[in-house]
Amino acid sequence: MTSSKTTLFILLVIASLASVALALSFGSVSNADAAIIYQLRLPRVLAAFAVGGLLAMSGSLLQVLTRNPLAEPSVLGVSGGASVGALAVLMMGGAGTIWVAGGAWVGAIVVMILLWLLVGGYSAHPSRMLLAGVMIATACGAISTLMITFASNVAMPGMIHWLMGDLDSVISLEAVGAILGVWLSVLILVWRLSPKIHLLQLGTDKALTLGIDVSYVQWMMVLLSALSAAAAVSIAGSIGFVGLLVPHLLRAWVVKKHGPDQKFLLPASALLGGTFLVLADMFARTVIAPSQLPVGIITALIGVPSFLWILSRFRHWNT
Amino acid sequence: MTINSAKDTPIVLETKHLNVHVPGRILINDLNWQVKKGERWCLIGRNGAGKSTLLRIIAGVQANSSAGEINWLGQALTEYKSEELAKVRAYAEQFAVGGVGLRAIDIILAAQWPWHLDASSSQEQAQAALSACDVAHLANAEWQILSGGERQRVSLAACFAQNTRAILLDEPTSHLDIGHQVALLNTLVQQSNACEQTMIASMHDIGLIQRGFTHALLLMNDGSYLAGSLSEVINPTNLERALGHPISTAQTVAGQTIYIPA
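YS: structure for the whole thing
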């Protein structure tokens, strides 16, 4: 990383810390005591940070993997697959966080493999990938609803509560620790792989001739993007568009000067994604206090116009 | 079938008993082919004759399903570590791709990956490669907005930047205007003379063969082939066999022989 990129990165770290500090001090209770801050706000803010960072990393990875500027876990149905996987575990009576998260990961990977089989590889024409993803996401939504309809009376409340998910449910410290652990592990793995991921932007054949073990890197990207989306979904339900918005903001910021340097963009999206979701969640819980908005509504309200804006910007896009 | 004009010139690429097939069809049968240092080969044949498939197989991008051998610098292709092979040959696809936001300069810098250069010499060599291919002014342009011909020139610059012994090009001139076609071939000649690089390029425009190539591999429709220096293999009869259309010759005012469809 050159020095100016290092400066940008330090700015992002400062922004992350500032957003966490800001979110801790804002809430429906104006002069909150230590108990509210440490037992309610801190777990929620930290969870929001990890979830946002994971979603943004998942989106960045998927955009490189599919060479598609509109790829994102909720758009391609990866988050939907994670929801189905997690609901299946809940329906069978599984309750532990680990089991639900594991089910979500399996669901997300199944969707990634389905996409690969349906469109014939991840570098298929962008619009085919997108259409297949939208269809899979729709199917996952239907299956989720179906599973809740047929769930036992014992399992149903838990499933509905989880599906409404978002960040307002009380999050245990263990869950916060786990999600931060996943965030850090994915960040480290992605950072180490990022020079090779960067070269994959030249297409698989070119990357092969440069000596990159393309299938290994691609499979790591599939596993890590699915893991990130699944971990985010198991804590917060399906929150859309963070994975689309954050990588595009970062690219718009650095691409003129540095190009789409994945050695910078991937770790940076882990920080900016976290900052973004912490601020969005702060807004969601304070804007109509004492009631709360689901944070997914905030990200969708910002995300849908951004999606359309990106779509129009890339209207000349072809592979 | 290859004539050893200079017996002591090292062999860069050699194939032995190589069969090239696609499902249900043999494209090239029993190819025994030697390419030596500094030679510039053009591959000629009809659509579907196996030019691209052959290039992909010798580049190691596509697995070779036949029992034939491919040796680069005397070592079997399959025994190379991919990082080492990346220093031996560069390959430009027919339709190169670029990811979201990628600029021409990013593609050139990425092509230097096998050598782990420091930042300043990396930039210096990248600029030289861009200038050699007349795309220095496009360094910061996004790949997605480049024209087909500009992309081909950037792809060639990336092959130069990879700094290999041999460069494999799949129809490098198909999208170029006439001026840039000639300029590109001149650049190939300069580069191969200056750096003793070996070039292998598939070509459709037979009018360009005499402008810089030294050897030709003609792929026939029945799976046979002819390989040799231009004076040995390029004549109207052989070209007609390879291309399936009568070919005549013409002389330019400068006395140069050119081949044109009859």
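YS: worth flagging: The radius of gyration of chain A is 19 Å.
IM: good catch. Also The mean pLDDT of chain A is 86.
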